[in-house]
Design goal:
Elements lengths: L1 H6 L2 H15 L2 H14 L3 H26 L3 H4 L5 H15 L4 H18 L4 H19 L5 H26 L15 H13 L3 H18 L5 H37 L4 H13 L1 H33 L5 H18 L1 H28 L6 H23 L5 H8 L11 H27 L1
Length: 447
């Protein structure tokens, strides 16, 4: 342990923190905050606080859960029946990997970073852009030992400088006065809830279980092998990443807040492009394009690395190189031919997985309190899985009419949190039952 800690100096911890930031900060993270700022207007502070709770707090907890237990979703789900844990792991990696998360990074880079300079999109330019993007991704993925060096010490500081320049400029020279809040954001409480939901819908807690494994591999490659030492380093680096994410989200939110009245659009990309172009001209658009490219590239590298390593756990004969080439090729194919079709399926799948992941993270931190872990895990997650599945059916419009009406009457259904109360009730009953029944067994044995 000591050797590992000595090898990991303060500058390494900062580099790891910046690497974690870069892995999390992808396409959606760039677009959500300006939209939130535009909608919240004068209620920006409570809205951005709500966003930070779920958009920064939940992913940080997910990262710490992975570090504390030494593995991703498969390890977190170990108290469940093996086939359920394997199915959840497969669904998470496939959905957030080559069938949604990976191709999306390429498409967003093209639409926001390339198209503004072309005038109009075309299939040919999409193919060229995506091919170059995935070649760069593959180059970085095949140098796993240098991920910390390349992303943590070089790419992320560039990204932060680009975003800081745009954000600080929008605060010093706003394009418009701050507008009144949208009706859904009128009160402080409403604004906080809307921000909370926007942060929830970034789906970054899912990413935490994938990126957490990448971070652990990075630490092992640097000689930090003991669990306690890993947790200590990840906690420090995670706080650095969370601080950077918070500052960037506030800055991007301010761009939306200070630009909305000038263009009257809530669309995140439009707000960013309008501000960059008006304030800095073509140089501003170029800076924004670079920021988008770097944000999406680092996320793509993290997702490809994670999926390739997952493939290696399925088959021992698969090498990192072959798995990485296969994953990037699949991501490239989907980004060119079928992303929009897959989006309609992938989003409900991700929304199905999200509550399960949140509950798994919470249970991981409480696992030492349960005398009968399997009872609590299976009961609580069984209820969560049921309601998450119903939510996915609802989003895909597969519910029969009468059942849909009944489902829509559940509390918090409009906020995609209908699973929350049933899960809490199941947790309360199962944790009490597990405690009481095990205590009773112990008493009987003693007598």
């Amino acid at each position: 342990m000591n050797g590992g800690q000595h090898m990991f100096k303060t500058k390494d911890t900062f580099a790891l923190g910046f690497m974690i930031f870069a892995l999390f900060f992808g396409a959606g993270n760039l677009i959500f905050p300006p939209e939130l700022g535009a909608l919240a207007g004068t209620q920006f502070l409570p809205a951005i606080l709500g966003f930070i709770v779920t958009g920064v707090g939940l992913p940080l907890l997910g990262l710490l859960a992975v570090a504390s237990i030494g593995g991703g979703i498969k390890t977190l789900a170990a108290p469940l029946p093996r086939f359920i844990g394997a199915a959840l792991t497969f669904a998470l990696y496939v959905a957030i990997g080559p069938f949604f998360g990976i191709p999306r990074t390429s498409v967003v880079t093209y639409e926001l970073g390339v198209v503004p300079f072309l005038g109009a999109p075309s299939q040919m330019t999409l193919v060229i852009s995506s091919s170059l993007f995935f070649l760069a991704t593959l180059y970085l993925v095949l140098r796993p030992g240098k991920l910390l060096e390349i992303i943590g010490r070089f790419i992320t500081p560039l990204l932060l400088i680009a975003l800081a320049a745009l954000s600080i400029s929008s605060i010093i020279s706003p394009l418009s006065s701050v507008a009144s809040p949208n009706e859904a954001y009128e009160t402080t409480g409403q604004a906080f809830i809307q921000g909370f939901l926007q942060g929830y819908l970034t789906l970054d807690a899912l990413g935490a279980l994938v990126f957490g494994v990448v971070v652990l591999h990075t630490l092992k490659s640097r000689g930090v092998h003991e669990r306690k030492a890993q947790f200590k380093v990840v906690t420090r680096a995670g706080i650095i990443a969370a601080t950077a994410l918070t500052l960037v989200y506030v800055g991007l939110g301010m761009i939306g807040r200070n630009t909305f009245a000038a263009i009257g659009k809530v669309d995140g990309p439009a707000l960013l492009q309008h501000y960059a172009n008006t304030a800095f001209g073509s140089i501003g658009l170029a800076v924004l394009g670079i920021a988008i490219l770097l944000a999406c590239l680092t996320t793509s590298v993290g997702l490809v690395t994670a999926f390739a390593e997952y493939m290696m756990t399925i088959s021992k004969r698969v090498s990192l190189k072959s798995a990485s080439i296969f994953t990037t090729a699949l991501g490239l194919t989907v980004s060119i031919v079928g992303l929009q079709t897959l989006l309609s399926i992938a989003v409900p799948v991700l929304m199905f997985l999200y509550p399960i992941v949140i509950v798994l993270i919470a249970l991981t931190f409480m696992r030492h309190l349960f005398r009968r872990k399997s009872v609590v895990y299976q009961s609580t997650l069984g209820v969560t899985i049921f309601f998450s599945f119903c939510s996915a059916l609802n989003q895909l419009s597969l519910f029969p009419g009468n059942l849909k009406t009944l489902y829509q009457s559940l509390p918090l259904v409009d906020q995609s949190l209908e699973w929350l109360f049933p899960t809490l009730i199941a947790f309360g009953i199962s944790s009490w039952f597990g405690h009481v029944s095990s205590a009773t067994i112990t008493q009987k044995r003693a007598s």
